Amino acid sequence: MRLESINLGRVATIVHGNKSFETGICKYPAEGPVRVHKLGLSGDAIIATEHHGGADQAIYAYSTDDYDWWAEEAGLDWSPGLFGENLTIRDLPTDMNIGDRLLIGEVVLEATAPRIPCDTLAARIEDRGFGIAFRKAERPGIYFRVLNAGEIQSGDVVTLVESAEFNVSILDLFRHKYRLQHDAAELRRLLEAPIAARFRVQIEEKLAALS
Predict the structure, then answer these.
(1) Residue 143 lies in a domain
(2) Domain of 134?
(3) What are φ and ψ of residue 112, in 5° steps?
(4) CA-CA distance, 194 to 81, in Å (whole number)?
(5) Percent of the chain having pLDDT more than 70?
(6) Is residue 140 situated within a structural domain?
(7) Could you write out the DSSP letters of every residue in 154-197?
(8) Per-position b or e across 133-144, b if 16+ CB within 10 A of its CB
(9) Is residue 49's pLDDT more than 90?
(10) What digits encode the pLDDT tens for the residues 50-107?
């Protein structure tokens, strides 16, 4: 795997329907080394902190291979950072297990959650129906927590270290988000993995409601 681009957000105002709002989703390739710390990338704007950012969703990565799929299947003209990802990575798997790690130099990232589409993404793409298309495509990209900080730059080699400890995948969580009926055993299985805190709270609430 190869780090194709490191993308930093700028505060921007975008319009969706009859609403306008400030967002940090508009990310553009950075030049030179960028510092990775526990809460993300130095110089990256994060606005909607109730939904984005935090220690468990510090870095969002998307695969150039999945972008190529969008270009072929939907005619999407993409450039790095279009989906608001911090890291655009060649050959990043669409589906990893929670707990799998990426090594980029001294930086260690641990997979924690899928990206769930929102109105901000649809506004960025300028397509009100893009959230549904994103859901159906099941190519959500991956959030990571930072286990070891350091500097990275475009062109760096990325190494995948798979975890044998957990058997919950990114797509397991992504599909769970849209499920209307829940099974207590399945919810407990998801909670056994080191998933992102926002997902954990939601799943714990669903499990409590079944008691």
Answers:
(1) yes
(2) 2-170
(3) -130, -25
(4) 26
(5) 100
(6) yes
(7) TT-B-EEE--SS---BHHHHHHHHT-SS--HHHHHHHHTS---H
(8) bbeebebbbbbb
(9) no
(10) 777 899 999 999 999 999 999 999 999 999 999 999 999 999 999 999 999 999 999 9
